[in-house]
Amino acid sequence: MFTKKSHADVKKSTAKLQDSKKDSASRLRHLRMILDNVELEESKCLFETNYSHVYFILYDTFIQAEANLKQKVHKAHREELDGSLWLLEKILCLLPELLARRWQCHSLSRIMAKLLHLGNSPKLRREGVRYFLLWYQTLGENAPGYVHAMYADLIPGLIVPQKGVVGPDTEFSASDFLTHPNMKADGGMASVFHDNAFSHPVQSSEVVALLPPSSSEKSAPPDPRDGLEVLLNSMVHTAACLRWRDNRAQKDHRAFAFLLQRFMDVFLPVFSPNFDVSCSIYNPRLDLPVMRSINKKEEVMASCVVVLINWVSRFTHERLLSHRLDCTLHIEDVDQVRLHGYQQGLIVRDVLYVNRENINFVHEVYRQAFLLNFTSKPQIEAIRTAIAVYRDWMTGETPPPFLLEPNDDPPPPSNAGGTPRSQRLRTPSYVGAIAGSKDQLVVRAGRQNVLQVFVTNAANVFLVNTANLNICFPTRSRSYRSTPLEEQTEICKKVLNVYRTMVMNTEMDTRTWEQLLMVLLQVTSIVLHQNQHTLPSGTNKSATLGGILGSAIFQTLIVTWIRAHTKVPVNVLLWEKFLNVLQSLTHREELIIEWNKTIQTLTRVFSRYTYGINLLDLPLDRVAESRAEKRRRIGSVWQGSGSNSAANGGSAASAAISQNRQRESLAESSSSRSEETSSQVPLPNHPRPHHQHTQSQGGTGHGTRPIPLTPMLSRSYSEGSLASAARSSRIRRRRAATPKPKALQPSQLAENRINPQDLRRAMSLDSLARKGDAEETDSYQEGDNESGAGSRSPSPTASSGIEGGSIKDAQLQIDASLDDANSGSYGSGSNSGSISGRRCIILGGSAEGWHPDSTSIMWKRMLGALGDVNRIPKADLHAQVFMHLLEMTQNLIKIKQNQGISTDNQNTQPMPPLVPPIGIVAPWCYGSLSLDRSFKKGKLWALQLLCSLAIQGAVNMQQLPLFYHALHQLLTGEDRDLIYAILKHLEGPRLLSLLLPGHTLLLLDLVHASAILLTSLEVSRSTPRAEVAALLGSLLCYPSSLLTRSVLQPTPQKFELMECSDLQDHILNIVLRCARREPSAKARCIALSQLGQWLLMRLSQPLPASNSGRANLFQQAVPHHKDVHPKASSVYNPRIKEVLQVLLQALQFKHHTIAIVAVDSLKLCAERGRQLAAIERVPQLIITAICKALEIQSVTKPKDSDKVVLTSLMLCLGEFCMAIPAPIMLTPFNEQGDTLVLQVLRVLLQVASGAPRHERVKLTADDDFDMHIAHDDLQGDGRLPEATYQTSETIQKCITAIKLCAKAVSMHLVTHIGHFPMGIGASRLSSMVEEQDDIGNAAYGGQVETRRDSVELPSVVSAQNMQLFMLNSGLVASFIELPTLKLPGGGITAGLVTADKQVRVLMRDLNGKACWDASILYSEPRNAEEPPKTTPKIQHSQPLDSMATSMVTHTPSPRHTLRHRPAGVLPLAKDMAPDLDQLDDMLAYIGHTSPECVAPTVSQLNAPTASPLSGNQEAQAISVILNQRLLEQEFVTHSTQAPSPALRHASSNSSLQQPDQRSLHSTTASFDSLPTRTEMPFQYCRLLFSHLGLAGWERRSRTHLLQRSEKLMRELRNVDLQKCRETHKMAVIYVAAGQEDKGSILRNTSGSSTYEMFVSALGWEIDLETHNGFLGGLPRQGCGATAPYYATPFLEVVYHVATRMPSDSSEAMLLKTRHLGNDEVHIVWSEHNRDYRRDILPTEFCDVLIVVYPLRNGLFRVTVNRKPEVPWFGPLANESVVSGACLATLIRATAINASRTKRAALPLYQQFYEERNRSLDSVSSRYKESTTFEDFASRIYNPMPLSTLGTLRESNASSSAAPLASALLDHNRASVKGWVQASIDSGPIMGIAPSASAGSTAAMEAATGMSSASPRGPRKLGAPFKSVTKKHSLQHIAVGGGAGAGGDTPPESPTLPQRRFK
Question: In total, how many domains does the chain have?
């Protein structure tokens, strides 16, 4: 039995304990020793056996200690008291059964009274409370009344009123004493022991304090809070301390339940009079909380309430209990004290949860927490605690029993303690006492009831005004003290966070949702209204709770509202309350901000679920094909498969979906976090004005589920919810008829309509137009249809938001992951049979989440949540609302624009049946325009919105009267800001292209408003000066037939029509003024461009009544030959000259962009040169003004922009000089005889020479022309490129380029003026003849044809009949002597007697290459038999091609005379004869008639002077000459008689003898009387060279030979490849109706008739195979047969027309795509109903996109879209309306200017003449041969000496690899004598062994026969040259011929044909 000590010791001590003789102290000591050595059960047996002894020991020791302490407080005496109290505790714990029967009740009460005396020390009194509670719970209900009274006095300072109601036998009455047997004596009234004189014979001594407090302990007055805390803690500490014999667990619970009940009955009503004992969570009273005030009396006891709250939370807060258990279990060697303490906590909690009353008590305690008033820090912490408890109840893993549903199965017993581990710490009986109770099912209230109670009670934290409390609370930071308002704000944030947790993560039923909504409405209404009215107007927002939390409250309310409607059907009356609350708070900016966020978010959801478009990932934003391909590979968000994918659960698909979700969530909000374990959504600490409701695709528990993101609404699940087109149009008409949009408020509609179908229709989005009629079903109930809808998804975020007390930036997110399985893909489930089961909740179905119907209805409901927005009282908020409405409308427009966009760009998708309701807010806009001036900002936003609707075509016929009326009133009103807003947002000419019915009525209003704007001095970026200029310009060029004369009278009060026939004249005046004085650069440019268009139209259609039929829709501008004069009308608009003057004045602008635009506008008229010439003095005016502008624009230190302006001016000048008829250009215009050509050349010479101007040129602009630009809006966009700094090098480059341009233009004019185009057309200005065409087989009449691109050049290099000269640095000339060409019919020289050879001169310069043929003319045919006359006859030989002209030479007549006139006869021309010497006779006549002229030493003037030679020498010289003459005559005679004539040519030391196989050629009309002569191979070239004056000494410094080599010939070929004109290539693309993808557009092979007419008017068709001009990279075969081509004297344009190119194969499509994609300018003709986009044909180029849209009225809308780096250009600006007469011309000019401007913006770009000049300079610098005059003259006589030729042949014949050029370089310095000297030196040899000329073509090819052909067979000429049969009456010539195959023929060069040499 005894375990700790031996039996002897325990028994001995027991005996001593029972010995009454021993003193009580010894007995107590032995008792303590016994208890220390036995178990508890043994101790209980011991006490029960010896209870009398034990109590005696207690009483005796207590009395002794009391007596000792009264005498003196000593340590020993305190120890005696402690021992006595120890025994008291043991008695109370071990003898509960005895005590329960009131054993020693009176004695114990005396002891307890002494212990509980208020004079005792606090420690002793705390112990006394504990002992009393042990005793009190033992007695229970059996306690007498005075014990209950003692309990009521446990809390000092808390006065408990005695109710006087006591139980039976609770106190002794006087009758009990009197009837007691001991009281009876003699007489029945005498007592044996006591004096019975008194009614109470025993007087109780006065109870005094046992142990007064020490001096160190405070003696402050008692605080009820401390007493209450002691009492509550003691209640816990006394639990489970009594050792009952049986049923201990139940009795422990019952004992504590008794204490708790007594506490609730006695103390609770005292310190918490507002404690509602009737509060019940089982039948909750959900009265909405109201505003309360702070009562100071209540605040006194608030600290006690805080103590109670904290005490209850210790045992109901799951997190704290779990934490205590964990701490207990993790400590090694768990002591019994800790374990007992934990068990006590469990008992307390179990008692609190044991029945409904206690559970209601707990919730009422927490309700009292929410009713605290933030007046102390403990109160604030108590509120935090209450919030945390409820939060943990809702989110904890083990809910308390009252949260369980009554119908659910009971929880397992292990869960009773809160955690499974608590099972180990309990005995089976203990657990069974708790879990086995039948009351467990009774206490279950269900989660919904608790949520409703919490929602209602927690709202009280908002409903107290703490702003006026002057209190500060200490914080952790010493420097900062918080205020009650700040603390209340943090608490409210926590409550809102819990509300949001419920909204997002908690399942709630209809009643809970409605309660939450009502509470939020109540909070919103009271808090925001109360703070608004109780504070002065100037108070800062942060000084009120509503000001701080307004945004968060509104957001929570709105989000809860939307979320509720997708979860449960909500009563429609709540919608009324919601509307009323929001409409009453429209004066708060926070509401407007949150409403905007909600609308924008709902618009995104609306877009996704109704139209299948993600606004954050629009199809149009995915421009690059590679990105789209990458999306398709990864797996697009839009490929979700719905419920089928969810059923399959593929891991790869779910992973892809989750990746896409994360990407999209990050795209919407960078602050969105996603954690699976999150439990709530914190609110933002400081609401950001720009934060958005993020759109998350994931929620807790739905992370891996494939979600249907694009339900394609092929069929409506609500059947009739989406109104049909007819019904929606009726509703739109009804709404448009009233300015105030009542239709936006479904509640108002519900009041006026009875039919439930109409009501449901109004609730749904009536603006959704659906093709066809939707089915109508009658299965809906009216109540269901009245409920709203909406949804928000869980937003998992970190739980630290609530713990930290801050509202973080984690918004309630829009639901994209639906919570149930029946919300699958609509596209796949549309054919399912049970459609009604898939209906959304708002329509009476059961499907939760977003559906097309629910999103549409909720979007529209929230749109109208503010009521009539025009009733918003504050103007700035009114403006803010309309700004947000505009943003929403722009998103709707984006949806519309992105519908039907092909993702693969290979086919065009059909337009979907649903169209976004873009114009849904139009009635509000019309209503806002009628407000007063204070709402001006809102009216501006409304106007912008209306204009956007008009541009998008959303203004229907019913709204047009309202729209026109509003525009008319505002345009003619006085408010300029509104006028400017209309003019800006109508986008100028865009209004005209809309073709709104009756829009011409507003023309006069628009012109009137435009005039007001343009005449004002307001210049800013917001002033639409450019748009107005474009609008007026388009109206200026409008066909008069389309302008109605009836327009609205421009007065604001009237709406009447008037006649205005001179509208365009009025517009012209305004545009002229704009061009003269406009301060904005962009508007000035547009005005000048429009004037140029007007000029073009008036010159193209001189008569106003010109035919406007389709036959004259386009005019093709084909350049005519100079002899062809087209018919021109002689009647022109009289204001043409005035307009021209303005354009010409603008040329002098120092603003370079404006000057270039003026030049471009003027160039438009260059094509109409003949029409301009018909107007008096206009050509002279134009030429003079351009020349003057050149002088003005010329500066000494030009920049790149100056260079661009000057070159544009010079090229424009050249164009006009070529366009104006040559007779006008050559006619003198002043007395000095100056012509326009002379004036032009003078200016160009001045520019080219860089001569400085000695006097300043005065501006020719008149006084009305303003050269100043006040607002340069082209600074950042459209400005010409300029270097940031200038250096001498850059300046010199610009000067060189300007001079070169002037030189090129002047040379061009000299060559081509009056000659363009020639017979061949405009395609070529340069000759196609090359040197190799005349070398080789030219001697055979050109019978063999070779390739032009052949690289066999040695025959040219070594040709004896050709020489290359550099006449100056920019002019290379080739002289070639060749036999006279046989032309059909004799050509131009038919019948004339010419030499048998002719000279061909090829000249290359900046202007191109020219070919001149020169031939000697002997006589006319009629004088063939007579001796030839001495007068030369000029004749032209037929050129090789039509671009070559003939050069004329003449032969000198022989000068040998045999007779003389008499000295006195005057020689006259009429009696001149061949045998008379005119000069000799004249000298004789002068000497005879005027002897004074004869010198004294001279006999006569015609007498020769004395010979300087002696007589012998003179005779010898005469003899030599005569011998030479004789030899020549013999040689001639011998050569004419020889059957095989041969020529002999000898070098200085050797001779080459080769037979001459060339038959001598002579003309058909040769001289028979004269012997046939054989000239030297270069004789005629030498004669021409000499006759041209090139052989003179004075030209020696500029004329040089060129070193002939293969490299030189390739360089010359490279020069020939350089263009002589500016070249452009452009793409022309046709888009048919319904085409919006790359594939279908490129497959078009033809277009409409109007398109074909347009293409034909862009230029003229050329045959690609035979075209000799610019091809723009097009191959001659493979890209179609023809292409449009356009050319002027200075430029060439080729159009890559997509419909001309084949598309029958993938290779052809690839080739077409390459050609089109590489063009920098795209011209698109679109007949599709939507605008063309750049990304349809994706390319890195396409810097400028010009799109033409044909309009219904015969006009054309043109848009010009340029990349940002492209500067501004004209004449067409973006958005223009153009007539067909000038469309092609304007498009062509705009495209050319665009291409030119783009190139000018490129760094290091060079013009065509710069590139050609560089090539010519390369030839001059590399191959110029420096020779002495002797060598130079020798090479003219003999181009290739034999020494050089022999070396060439040896090098060619040898096996060495030395190139030909090295041989030329090595031997060109050989000592070679002239031709004549060589002949004299080798005279004898010449006579003996004549040989053929080594330099002749025959000698070169002696080894081959006449019929030998080139080793390469003849083939068709390749690009870029072709030999074709000319279509005109020229001869067919086959030129060229390869060298023979013999050993003397130079080898082929291995160089490729197209390679360039440097």
Answer: 4
